[in-house]
Design brief:
Blueprint lengths: L2 H5 L1 E9 L2 E2 L4 E3 L2 H11 L5 E10 L6 E8 L2 E2 L24
Antiparallel strand pairs: 1-2, 1-3, 1-4, 4-5, 5-6
Amino acid sequence: MHRREQYGQVYGVHAIKADEISATAMLCSTLKKAEGYAKELSTDPGVLAAAVTRYIVDEQGRRTAVVLYVDGKAQNVPWISNDRRVLANGWSPNHGVK
């Protein structure tokens, strides 16, 4: 059986911190598992948010932002936090403001 036929897609969970976006913290076989872990991870000290990305196995460039959690709450737009502390790539609108 070909890998794509066996796995199809996987979900990566990433932590977003003030100064970095982590490499994949966990790969999950189901969205439910990934969302559960991301929700929990987003409440850890030092973590601003946790993101879930869907990857299509054996297809280059096939990834999609699925959900972003901040303080255990799913955000309306997966790549922009509703409270605007975290934007795409971990950029903060107040970055560098004193």
